[in-house]
Amino acid sequence: MRTYKIAVLPGDGIGREVIPEAVRVLEGVLKLIGKQSFEFVTFDCGGQYYLETGKEWTDEAQEFVKTVADGVLLGAVGANTADGKPVRRPDGNLAGYSIVIGLRMDLDLYANVRPVKLYDGVTTPLAGKTPHDIDMMIVRENTEGLYVPMRGTLTRGGEDECALDVRLITRKGSERVIRFAFEQTKRRKGAPVDGKSRVTCVDKSNLLAGCQLFRRVYDEVATEFPDVQRDYAYVDAWTQWCVRSPEKYDVVVAPNEFGDIMTDLGAVIQGGLGLAPAGNIGESHGVFEPVHGSAPTHYGKKDANPIASILAGAMMMNWLGERRKDRACLQVGTMVDAAVAEVLREGRVRTYDLCNGPFSNVIPSSTDKVAKAILEKASEKAERV
What we know:
Elements: E1 4-9, H1 15-32, E2 38-42, H2 47-53, H3 59-68, E3 71-74, H4 97-106, E4 111-117, E5 135-141, E6 151-156, E7 159-165, H5 171-184, E8 198-203, H6 209-222, E9 229-234, H7 235-244, E10 251-254, H8 256-269, E11 277-281, E12 286-290, H9 307-324, H10 327-346, H11 367-384
Parallel strand pairs: 1-2, 1-3, 3-12, 5-10, 8-9, 8-10
Antiparallel strand pairs: 4-5, 4-11, 6-7, 11-12
Helix pairs in contact: 1-9, 1-10, 1-11, 5-6, 7-8, 9-10, 10-11
């Protein structure tokens, strides 16, 4: 029996509270199904670790993540100094940069995958929309675009006079993430409005040369998937249509910086960042994380929502199950997602960020109590089976 080794990087702030709860849920469900072939190995890392040691993480952690780990569960990074300022490296980047951005490049995690799903029992700011309307996947190119390190500032006489950022779009980067997006339709039920498999290309090809290349490549790849409907949107128009008619969208693919902004909108319509998981996926590696930040001012209050981290863990299990053809991993992912859905639907146990609308009278639960409720619900379902 294969033993999976999972690198756990809690990071900073509330990451140190929600990631351990995600591990607790995964370990609990693994035990429920009798699968013990998982080893979760935790490493300190991030801004606080940098403050204490002058390094973002240890050489041992880097080696394990890059050469040993079958999967990585990552919390948010970013810490503050005693005077409340962000901890930064000498190059000006936030301490933790080499973990978040560095891993994307070092492991070539070219696809950032963001499920945008509204669960029953969660309120959305979109009037009249229900869980039957919001269930899409946004696939964002993750290694190029505006975020490539081709930037600089012209400083003369102590004054910053000019700043330059270069946007890079390549055929290789576009083709592989677009093909990845089309492949995802095979695992989904289609758009909520009509059940049709559809990939929407979101860009700014009416103006930008990089987006024109991205769209040309999209059209080329689309010919390989004749059963998947093509769809197009300029990014500014998409943000409007996503709010008005989210039920139209199945899988959405976009260049890096546009996808980054779009997924934050997606988090809002699904009920908030506390419910938003993400996967950073390449050919051989996967790093899974909650979308939210480290929120250092909340650390220690035990009020952070652990569900995004728990769902990130479920994503990791599903990815491992598909990659390794391991039904037990897929079973864990399904059980965790179902348990989360049931706890949210019942509405009795939830953190403060979800105590709104019809749930405004619910007394907020702590981070660990929410995780405990999810694990208990998984146990109840396992017993019924």
